[in-house]
Amino acid sequence: MIIGIIGAFEAEIEQFIKMFHLKKIDDKEIYTGTYDNKNLIVANSGIGKVNSGAMTQYLIDHYPINYMINSGCAGSLKEDIKLLDTVISSTVTYHDFEPVRVMAFSVPDEGMIKADQKLIEIAEQAMKKESYYIAPICSGDCFVTDSIMRDKIYSKTGAYAVDMESGSIGHICRKNNIPFIAIRTISDFADGADDFEIVAAHKSSELVKRMIELI
Questions:
Q1: Is 12 an annotated catalytic residue?
Q2: Closest C-alpha among 180, 162, 163 to residue 172
Q3: Which residues are bridge partners to 132 per DSSP?
Q4: Whether 86 contacts 207, CB under 8 Å
Q5: 100: Cβ–Cβ under 8 A, 6 or more apart, which residues?
Q6: What are phi and psi of 130, to 5 degrees?
Q7: Which end of the chain is more exposed for a tag (fewer CB within 10 A), N or C?
Q8: In whole angstroms, what separates CA 46 from the centre of its chain?
Q9: 30 phi and psi, to 5 degrees?
Q10: Distance (Å, rounded) from C-alpha 193 to C-alpha 60?
Q11: Tens-digit pLDDT string for the chain (215 aa)
Q12: How many CB atoms lie within 10 A of CB 62?
């Protein structure tokens, strides 16, 4: 079994490299190793939808991936979703794909891309006593830095968390019939205030480690 894990920047993959003693295999910041009798392919995609989508397709083309997990941090779009809470993707979508009616026939699942149900159930088991939500996550190629923009995105998408990669990773996985899930720990309130992206990214990594043990 091969499990692919994608993060968008160093903090989102560095814990995996340490925990699993991974080795870099090429110049694309792709690392490999084994854990719990599973083969792991961990990649730093770079930030944004194009970078993450391109990396997802590259991994699928070059490795027989069985499951794909997107791990990292995200901004909260709801007041009651607190710092270091975790959002398990029920679906992923885009908040910057306009008009929405075009997204409905141009993106899998009419724009609300479904995460794999088995992986959702495994993620729930891995949470233990952590505070988590199973909910939509949305992506767009911008930093969400003010409450007006944040609230507009929530009203449009119903997502609990916002990032810049999970939508495109899920999009590519669905087109290739690869089961996927996004695990995002809240690092900020999408309002431009100080964030906790490293702490959140590392927490997400620990949760994904538990998931791997259960797969």
A1: yes
A2: 180
A3: 86
A4: yes
A5: 111, 156
A6: -70, 155
A7: N
A8: 13
A9: -115, 135
A10: 37
A11: 999 999 999 999 999 999 999 999 978 899 999 999 999 999 999 999 999 999 999 999 999 999 999 999 999 999 899 999 999 999 999 999 988 888 888 899 998 999 999 999 999 999 988 999 999 999 999 988 888 999 999 999 999 999 999 999 999 999 999 999 999 999 988 776 667 999 999 999 999 999 999 99
A12: 12
CA-CA distance, 111 to 105, in Å (whole number)? Answer: 7
Read off the tokens for 75. Answer: 């901004």
Distance CA 50, CA 94 (A): 13
Q: Which pTM was predicted? A: 0.95
Mean pLDDT (the chain, rounded): 94
Token pair, residue 119, equals 């992986």
The answer to whether the CB of 86 falls within 8 A of the CB of 48 is: no
Where do we find the tokens 């159930």? 121
Name the catalytic one among 85, 165, 188, 197. 188
Helix-helix angle 166-175:49-62, to 10 degrees? 30
Closest CA relative to residue 212, chosen from 86, 41, 82: 41
Of 10, 12, 14, 146, the active-site residue reads 12
State the Cα–Cα distance between residues 62 and 151, nearest whole angstrom: 40
Residue 32 CA to residue 90 CA, distance in Å, equals 28
- Single out the residue of 215, 184, 175 nearest to residue 7, CA to CA: 184
Cα angle at 182 between 177 and 187, to 5 degrees?
160
